[in-house]
Amino acid sequence: MRHQLMIIVLTTIAMLFGASIQPAYAADTIPCYQPTRLSAGYNARVTTQSNLPNRMRSEPSLRNNVIGRIPAGAEVYVIEGPRCEEGFYWWRVQYGNLVGWTAEGNGWNLYWLEPSGVVGPGPTPVVCALPNRLNVGGNGRVTPGLPNVVRSAPGTQSTGAYWSVVLGEIPGGGVFNVLNGPQCGTDGRWWWEVQYQDLVGWTAEGEGINTYWVEPVDINAPQCAGFMVSRLIPGGLGRVTTTPNLPNHIRTLPGYANTSLGLIPAGGWFTVMSGPYCADNTAWWQVSYGDVVGWTAEGQGNTYWLEPR
């Protein structure tokens, strides 16, 4: 009888107080013990002790998506923080054009970020300086020669766009549809979402301030027999290409046999007045260069001598 009474008492105590017995903390409320060393409004850099990159995530948690990587030794601008999540201190930072959350350390004795001692405004944002020539809803073409890579997102992994992977290539001369863009990538290049046959992804327009890898093309434009699709537009601007770095003759009429009125130097800009007129297996355009008005050839075979602005 005494044993039965003891069991009843113990059972009652368990029912009364058992529900309130919890672990010291839940998985989502693990405290952060590692002292913070960073401050919002200052720069920080990824430590080179382990020579490993630091992951950037969409939100401050190991369970959120990785949106990029910051190389060892690279500097970031600290926007806000810290946020304690899962035992780590997280900071919202800017690396180039990329903004996300990254952990300061392993939560105990190893720091992955360190203060650089530089007051903001942080790293200079990536600038895309190449003037755009494509248009959404139009068509483009890879310039003759090398193919253009198509990626899953703008930018390259080596410049922090960790999620950007190669999906395929568009060969030189390949024509594609322009779906979206442009977006300035982490690599300082303008990227356009395009469709080439069954391949859909992002491709770069070029690099620097005057190097184009793709160009606009009118698939309905007239094409002269023995020559490629013309690229110039009446009323627009054109330029003599710098490859092969030779001048272009302006002639009285379309055709190589007609009298030369002068030369347009390599890199020289002109106004397109009319055309094209097909002669001698190429396209001829009436142009105005300085005080000279006449006809000049767009190219020969698979080589363009003129290009649109």
Tell me briefly what this model is.
InterPro entries: SH3-like_bac-type. This protein has one helix spanning 2-17; strands spanning 42-46, 54-57, 66-70, 75-85, 88-95, 98-103, 113-119, 139-142, 148-151, 166-170, 175-184, 190-196, 199-204, 206-207, 211-212, 214-216, 237-240, 248-251, 260-264, 269-279, 282-289, 292-297, 299-300, 303-304, 306-308.
Q: What does this entry look like structurally?
A:
By secondary structure, this protein is mainly beta. Helix content is 5%, strand content 43%. The chain has one helix and 25 strands. The strands form eight sheets. The protein has a five-stranded antiparallel β-sheet, with no helix packed on it. A five-stranded antiparallel β-sheet has the order 13-12-11-8-16, with no helix packed on it.
Provide tags for this entry:
mainly beta; five-stranded antiparallel β-sheet; SH3 type barrels; elongated; 309 residues; 3 domains; 5% helix; 1 helix; 25 strands
Low-confidence stretches: 5-10, 13-27
Major beta sheet summary: 5 strands, antiparallel
Strand % is 35-45%
CATH topology of the largest domain: SH3 type barrels
SSE class: mainly beta
Morphology call: elongated
| CATH class group of the largest domain | Mainly Beta
